[in-house]
Design a protein that fits this description.
globular; binds phosphoenolpyruvate; 44% helix; eight-stranded parallel barrel
Length: 259
Amino acid sequence: SGTRVPLIAGNWKMNMDHVQGITLLQKLAWTLDDAKHDYRRVEVAVFPPFTDLRGVQTLVHGDDLSIAYGGQDLSDQDSGAYTGDISGQFLAKLGCTYVLVGHSERRTIHGETDEQLSAKLKAAFRHDLVPVLCVGEGLEVRRAGTHVEHTLGQLRADLEGLPEDQVRQLVVAYEPVWAIGTGEVAGPDDAQEMSAAIRAELAGRYGDDVAGAVRVLYGGSVKAANAAAIIGQPDVDGVLVGGASLDAGEFANIVRFES
Ligand code: PEP
């Protein structure tokens, strides 16, 4: 992954209320410190439910933890009559570094379109949040063999109108939908194939310098047992972990993938 610092990110999804979330984060911090491993060579981030973020902020800053955090979604608007939505402004004020944009569960369950996601990316940058843009194909597309074209199509549409200096800060997570929460993991070769294709697409549009700066993560049934082989791929700069991020010990072992 060259000079790119690997990012190990945990997406808690709609799990862990604000009490459980604090317990999980405390356990994770203890486990990482106990191991006397310099996990600061990698970046660690968690994506808790919105209602956990205030508590996470207090714990991270109170205990000076080297753990970043972010929201799982944001509105494309900054404030106003958008009942139930959360502004990037609010996330930034809670100390969020990151925000997930276009997770496949948002695309499928909430019907989020590439046009909306493009607006959400711009909203994130308006508030200095780093978006982790999720892209990836479903099973039908994978079977048809058009997964690279499909995923690059999402990327192109989502990045529409985004200036180069913002694109270079972006994190892209390749998450094949058929591998999310299914126990079915794409092979390291599949992760590398798509990550290289994403980087080549970025290089073609924004130049090698920008493409070399963007971190590309893999997500889909990542566990401690398969993390090292995946992150070891030249164009894979970390992982986005769902299920396994709810277990502090397992997630800590993913963070320590090198050992
Ligand atoms: C995810 O939701 O981003 C994810 C990759 O989930 P899991 O690790 O459970 O497949």
